[in-house]
Amino acid sequence: MRIDPHWQGLDPQARGASVAMGNFDGVHLGHQAVIDLARQPPASLGIVTFEPHPREFFAPAAPPFRLMNAEARANRLAKLGVDHLFQLPFDATMAALSPQDFARQVLAEGLGVTHVVVGADFCFGKGRAGTAADLKRLGDDLGFRVTIADLVQAAGTSISSSAIRQALTEGRPRDAAVMLGHWHRIEGEVIHGEKRGRALGYPTANMSVAGLHLPRLGVYAVRADVLTGPQTGSYMGAASLGVRPMFGINQPNLETFLFDFAGDLYGQHLSIAFVEFLRPEMTFDGLPALIKQMDSDCDQARDVLAAI
Q: Is 179 within 8 Å of 155 (Cβ atoms)?
């Protein structure tokens, strides 16, 4: 998949795509339905999205809400067979474009799209003034087709990033997975921690969760994909997401213990899939009690993952 972080001066081969457009936070089943409608061979399949997310641009001090960082979103879109990801910069210039100027300058003249698919609730342009119906009308004038996708439901409820966030907040990753069509994942680089896990017999891969909406803090059964390095592959494990109250640390992070793994993962990129919530964060009377609980957590995680 090719990633273009701009919409001006594109190579001719990047133009003429049939695109799905939106923020695609989570790339859930509703997003996937929009993407499927954009598959119009022989045109290449493209995604038009924005980085940073417009909500981050307008409210940079608001609590984190994203289900995915840009890297995780790109990885998921690549798995869906997307040819081109147009990851457009959302800045003051983009925010100031009227719906008419966005359709003409960005979609028609810049990207040269032949077909655009959006969800029924899609809004665009300055002040979110443009609707999906407006885009269809503008496309007719500017020479590209527009398809408006119906909202997708699961178990009688409309699928949305907000509903997925709620399920994760409540420690229901399997319910979130039903709406996502895949396990919720946190992806990123393995960073150096304080190496307490190694001293306890449970060496962990530490990852930052900055900028993301966090699932319920606690311990999870997880599946882990090592995406880079000599030990690339899939593993099972147990992960602790939280602030480590036992040690008085307040900055959340993700620590994952991979079963049946030996090696160094510093600097490599991991994708951690949340399968089942096992327990909330706890404090213990001492390290022996903590180690005993970690033994139990890993046994429980093995049982959960073996049953899937």
A: no
* DSSP string for 12-34: GGGSS-EEEES--SS--HHHHHH
Contacts of 219 (CB under 8 A, 6+ apart): 238, 239, 240, 241, 277, 278, 279, 280, 281, 297
| Amino acid of residue 286 | G
The backbone torsions φ and ψ at residue 198, rounded to the nearest 5 degrees and listed phi first, read -60, -40
Residue 84 burial (C-beta neighbours within 10 Å; 0-12, 13-18, 19+): buried
Residue pair 57/91 in contact by the 8 Å Cβ criterion: yes
**pLDDT, mean of each 10-residue run, the chain (308 residues):** 93 94 95 96 96 93 93 95 97 97 98 96 95 97 96 76 95 96 96 67 89 96 96 96 66 93 92 97 83 93 95
Q: Are strands 218-226 and 233-242 parallel, antiparallel or unpaired?
A: antiparallel
CB-based contacts of 175, cutoff 8 Å, min separation 6: 167
Q: Please tell me the distance from the alpha carbon of residue 187 to that of residue 304, in angstroms, as a whole number.
A: 22
Contact present, 274 and 183 (Cβ < 8 Å): yes
Instruction: Report which of 231, 252, 244, 304 is spatially closest to residue 273, judged by C-alpha positions.
Output: 304
Neighbours of 52 (CB within 10 A): 15
Which helix (H) or strand (E) element contains residue 226?
strand 218-226
